[in-house]
Every structure is written in C-alpha cells, then in structure tokens.
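Thread title: Can someone regenerate the structure for this chain?

I was given the following input by a collaborator and told the matching structure tokens would be attached. They weren't. Posting the sequence so someone can regenerate them.
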Amino acid sequence: MNPPKRLRTTGNEADDRGAVDVSVVMPMYNASCWLDECLQAILHQDFTGTMELSVFDDASTDDSRDVVERWRERLEARGISVVVSGHNSAQPRGVGYAKNKAISQSCGQYYCFQDADDVMLPQRVRLQYEACTLHPNSLIGCKVQRVPEGSTERYTRWINTITQDQLITQVYTSHGPTVVMPTWFCSRNWYLKVGPFDEGGKGVPEDLLFFYQSLRQGGGVARVDQCLLVYRYHEKATTHSVTEETIWKLRVDFLQERVLSQWESFTIWNAGKQGRKLYRSLSPTNQKKVKAFCDVDDNKIQKGFYTYEESKQRPKPKITVLHYKDASAPFIICVKLDMTGGVLEENLNSLQLKEGMDYYHFN
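Best answer:
Regenerated them for you:
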C-alpha cells in the first residue's frame, strides 16, 4: 500500500493532508486491553487503495492513547496514515461526539467504522469498499463472529441470516439497525447528507437515530455476506447504557411515521403483554386504526376483547381478540422472532402473506 499522493489545499486541515480512499473511524474510550488486536487487524488489511486511521479519544483514563501511538510507526510504514486526537475532560462526551470528531479530522472518501474492542478480518475494507462503490447511498454491513461464542445467540443469528429484503422490512424490531453499527461502511458524501451523529451522550442510541435518518433520506441498506468482523460482547459496552424504554419509543414513532401513516386499519398480532403495550403506545389516531388483536391463546380468544382501561374515552375502547386465522391483514407482529420453535413462522406462511406489505415484525 503506497502512502497517499493526491494532495489538495482547501483550508480544511484534514483535506490539506490529501484525500485517501478509506478512513477507518475509531472512537476510543478505555480500550487499552483490546487495542493491540484491533490495530494489528487494521495493519493486515488486504485493501490496495489508500487508508488512514482516525482515532478520537473520549477522555480515556487508561493508556489507550499511548497504545495507539506505539502502533503509529508500523501503520505508517504500511502506508496507513494515523490521526489521533482527543480531550481530557473529567467525563467522556459519548460515542456520537467521538465519532463526529474522528470523522471531522479524517480525509477519506469512504468511512469504515471500527469499534476499538472489535477485530476486522483481513478482507473487510476491500470487500466493503467494493460494495460501497456500487451502493454509494447505502449503509453497508457484513456478517459477524460473536465472541465469547454463544453470547447473544439469537441476536447474532439474526444479524447473519436476515435476507436482503428483510434488511429493509425488519428495521422496526427491537434488535435495532438491521446492519449493526460496528460493521458500518459508507461514503463520505452519504454521511454528510445524513449526519452528524447525535451527541446526547450516555443513554442515547446514536446508531439507531442515524440509521433511521439514513432511511428517511432514501438511503439503502446492504450487507456483504461474509464474516468480516469479530464482534465482542462485554459488560462495559456502551450499548448497555441505553434503556429499553428509550429504544421502544423511538421504534414506535418510526413505525407510526413509516408504516401506520400509510394504513387505514391493521391488526396487532399478539393479544398479550407486548401487543397491548404497542396499542397503548400508539397515537390516538393510530389506536383507532386497530381493528383487532389476534392470537393463538384460547383463553385470550375466548375472552373476546381487550379493554383499554387507561383510556380517557367514554365508553372505554374495547378491541376484539380473534384467532389469527380469523383475522385480516395487514398485521404488526408483536411476537418474538425465533422463539416459538418455528410455529409463528409456519402460521405466517400458512396465510401466504408477504413481509413488508401484509405484515411487519415489531418484536
């Protein structure tokens, strides 16, 4: 890999260094114990274009910054320029802030997002760069290997097995972005159109907010169907700081905006806790569109209806509960995927429904 030769002068410090093909964008916070493995993997990329590593240290209290500096010579000898900055405030400013800072100091035409605790496989940058040049207005992901093995088993299976169509239809599920943030690769132009990341800090799902905004802007979602990343699960991961309720509200709002606004009426598939919670979370306009709940539970079906007790309406709304075979599409499915031994999927298939038209998964 040759050092970048294309020079431009624009008054922007990053641009004045000369454009490179790909910037590896790495926010960093107390990542010292993982960095050697992470940086060695960047060194061993088989991409033949020009690359840089742009690191922003979000007030680490360990020796993360020193570790990166120790790798600088090896990376630069390989033609990978290294840009490192950060701040030493008493508190970290959050992942969104650190990503934006790492991007603002970078000069790549494409961005490869890399978490400091994950490890990219040698062909990651090359294969995602090739995919991104074909889909410049998309977020490109890849399959992952989860470590420790067996952690978040259902989630990992979902990441790796949903189809290209489901990358678009399953954006409302509790799993979040259908291509997961640690695998993202996108063009600089697309980031500038969609971004920046939300800088609200701890507890803000900046990746989900960016993902939704990308879809609103007409962006695509694509996945390289090879495992290109070792995706580490551990207790200190920032994802754990985001509450389920925060995610729930964002998902409900996005579902109402993108799907329910287009439907005159619909059925909620699940008359239990999750289905009723969805109903209660809807706007009054969308609550009125719910023509029924449906279920397979005889007790719920025999009861015949669900009463919305908290409603200020008089009389209180009563929603019919039907067997799923007696209900009519379109449906919002509030049953967890991959948890019924294939029964839910068989029931859906028996009705010959099309995902993304006749139903959307919400759980």
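Confidence is low (pLDDT under 50) at residues 2-12.
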